[in-house]
Amino acid sequence: MLTLSVLLPLLAAIALALLPRIGDRMARLLAVVFTALPMVLLLAVWMTDPPSGGFAAQFEAPWIPSLGIAWRVGVDGMSLALALMSALIFLAAAAWPMQIARARAYYAWILFLTGVSLGLFVTLDLVIFYVFFDLSLVGMYFLIGRWGHGDAQHAALKFFVYTLAGSLLILIAIIVLALSMPELTFDMRAIIAAPPLAALADGGTVVPGLVLLALVVGFGIKTPLFPLHTWLPPAHVNAPGPASAILAGVLLKMGTYGLVRLGLQMMPETFARWAFWIALLALASILWGAIVAYAQPNLKRRIAYTSVNHMGYTVLGIAVAGSAAGTETARALALTGAVVEMIAHGLITGALFLVAGVFWKRTQDYEIAHYGGLAEEAPRLAMMATLAAFASLGLPGLAGFVAELHIFLGAFAVYPWVAAAGLLGLLITAALFLQLLRAVFFGPRPAEGGVARFADLDRTEMAILSALLALVVLIGIWPLWLLELIDAATILAAPGGGG
Amino acid sequence: MQGMSDMPLGDLAPELAVLLGAVGVLLLAMLLPQRHHRLCAPITILVLASATALALSQAGAERFTFSGTFRLDAATTWGRVMVLGLTALCVAMTPAWMEDDRRHGEFYSMMLLSALGAMAMIGAADLMQMLMGALLSSVTGYVLAAYHRDWEISLEAGMKYFLLGALANALMVFGAILVMGLGGSTDYQQLSNAFPTEPLALVGLACVVFGLFFKLGAVPGHAWVPDVAEGAPLPAAAFLTVVPKIAGAIALARLVALVPAEAMPLSALVATVAALTMTWGNLSAMWQEDLRRLLGWSSVSQTGYALMAVAVLGRAPDAWAALIAFMGVYGLANIACFAVVAHLRGRTELAGWAGIGRQHPLAVSILALGFLSLVGIPPLAGFLGKFALFKVALDGGMAWLALLAVANTVLSLFYYLRVLGPAVMGTPEKSAATLGRANLWIGALAAVGVVLLLPWAWQDLWRALSGG
């Protein structure tokens, strides 16, 4: 079933790309259907075969047995939750009303990205993982480069070059991991069960350290972590709204997901040794992202930098979880928080970028200063944006709070000073979102040069945003189902996990 | 050793087929009026196909033939098949390119003879025999490189190829004589039993090895590669950067396997040359403003990678398989890239590639696949080939060389992206002329091989190669 959820959108993408007779409306309809189908399949997996303490719904087809490469799929709580969230974001992106040129190709790329992103989360083979990691890059490159605005091509190229360079480091790390197994294999389960580089204890710590460095840099670029984040703002600003939602909601998660799967689970001892430094890096991202976001006069840039900030929380959670210090409970708390933050950030920032898309569609203007008092003209938009902004700044009762609470509870038990400094980030984020809401929706209109007329959300836009935000509220007030699904303790308790 | 009557012609059936084909095509080209010369192409491909069939019918053989001068084994079989198949792709590129050339038909004959030289080198189990193959491959190579007689750059390429080749081949002959004089034989079987250890014989051996480095385009015999890639007619450029290299690699590997490590540390020499070649090739490719020269330098660096397998021969059980697999994968990807360049009428200025992706998306996709396979990005065949090389280098205890190759791989991504980035994103100045569809299809065919066929069938191919 997992295989099918990867193949269906890919096949649909090929069909869309090759059949010239499909009209724009039909293309969008197909995209909606073929992003909804994988979600149904994933839900079915959750209902019938929920992951409990291992990988569920496993399937394996041989490819190159002599090299230990095969098509392997399977999900644990973390990857199933991420795949489900991704499928939802893709569905939202496909359904989001757009007036664009070459719609058929656009929806084909969206479907392509759906397939490769889901593939990345459900695969259990490192080579396939790498292939999907790179293909996601290609898909996003074309979405930004072709349908973006402003200096889209330059932004797309920057994005591509940064992440491709990072992915090459990941490839090298993957090869070293596979080669240092007693028997050559790219099977994630085997490597997690017996982390190979720990056995090198007599061989010193240089090689494992370098491999981890390659992973941190490679995934850090994608996440993005300070100071590797500079590709992110231009890519976001110039991308079309739904593409931004995918980029922030799904693609950034590949970095943190990889950090947990490859970094934390496959080389726990080395990760524990360097956990503190990774936590510091996360702290830098939290603070830098928040401060720089506050200084942005451009709506979309501001949201983009809050992504740096939020992914910083996630990485902080991962670092705490992977540290050998602190109690088991604290580390499990932090990892739970990190995964919930990935889900919550996906939903919230996805919604925020769609809101930003609303602005571009109506006025082609992201300048915060050009707006004011929109709550009167567009009350529905104001409501949705306010809800999303509150969720993003971590208001209790919304998903962001659940995530950040877990992360900081765990972090205070392990790295109290880092956690304390990280709290500053929360404060700044709150300020910057409140300031944004006041300026755009509730404050006075600018005296001159402002935007005159503004249409409220239409019915489709309203429905999509409500669906995303309803889930945010649901996770906020009743997170138990999600926490049970993620089941972070088993990720840490897996043989070799948690140092 | 058997007597002189030991001449089972059937063992050389593929070579004989190519020879007869070359003569036949030559006669045909003399009889036909120029405008019908393109007829020679399908006939040449037919010749190559039947030779391939004959070569495959000998798969699994493991013996010496023709009084021990020719060896039939897995390396010979696969080397022959690769040479024949890749030559066929180059032949298919030719009609569109050579259409207006007065000597269009003879070109095919030259290619066949050059392929024959390569095949003779591949099977050679005797220094003299290897030498003859190398000379035949070289002499025809010079002609192919300088085929555009009225174009200075082509002439320069041929001249450079010829001068370097003359030096290398003369050294090789000189070396072979020294080895023969001191060892009493040129037969590999006899030499392997008692390799002469006199310093003079080792000098001779070094001379022979240097000659093979030239065929391979490895440092220090590499200087002809970028010039030939730039100046030779495109089908010849594709041919010369692939086929003689395959022959050179296999011939060198046979020689290295022959010499006992205590007589001369050949593997250390080969490892050093591998390191120098991959690094120098990459560094030189970095800032090329000419795509064809860039491809030439990239081909130099790929030779460096291939030499890793030769360096660990005898220490890593899969070294032979890795060498052959990598050469085949490299050849296919390289020909895919050259076919795209040929399709765009040899467009070679890097600046001229800006925005080509808009007008010719298929062509640029093929080029991208070819490049990415040369880098070694999974799941393309290039990854599998390179991975095999890294693995044997590690198995053979040359981790430093594998590390250097990894570093070089990272580096190489830069210059390939320097071409692809603007090609996809730039704005085209004016519409680019093409050369019919034929070359595009060849590129597509090679790309499909790199993307689908080889990765798909890798397990079986590998088993056949490693004899397991």
Description:
- The complex is a heterodimer of chains A (499) and B (468).
- Chain A has 499 residues and is mainly alpha-helical.
- Chain A has helices at residues 2-18, 24-48, 77-95, 103-122, 126-147, 152-179, 188-193, 206-222, 232-238, 241-266, 268-294, 299-322, 328-363, 374-377, 379-393, 399-414, 416-442, 459-477, 480-486, 488-493; strands at residues 56-64, 69-75.
- Chain A has a two-stranded antiparallel ribbon with strand order 1-2.
- Residues 495-499 of chain A have low confidence and may be disordered.
- Chain B has two domains: 12-161 and 223-252, no CATH class; 265-468, no CATH class.
- In chain B, strands 1-2 form a two-stranded antiparallel sheet.
- At the A-B interface, strand 1, helix 5 and helix 6 of A face helix 17, helix 18 and helix 19 of B.
- Poorly predicted regions of chain B: none
Span between termini of chain A: 33 Å
What is the chain-wise order of helices and strands of chain A? HHEEHHHHHHHHHHHHHHHHHH
Instruction: Summarize model confidence as the mean pLDDT of chain B.
Output: 89
What's the multimeric state? heterodimer
Helix count, DSSP H or I runs of 4 or more residues of chain A? 20
Main structural class of chain A: mainly alpha
Identify the overall geometry of chain B: globular
Strand content of chain A: under 5%
**H and E order of chain B:** HHEEHHHHHHHHHHHHHHHHH
**Strand segment count of chain B:** 2
Broad structural category of chain B: mainly alpha
Number of domains of chain B: 2
Mean pLDDT over the residues of chain A: 88
Main pleated sheet of chain A: 2 strands, antiparallel
Main-sheet strand order of chain A equals 1-2
* Count of alpha/pi helices of chain B: 19
Question: What is the 3D form of chain A?
Answer: globular
Q: How many beta strands in the DSSP annotation of chain A?
A: 2
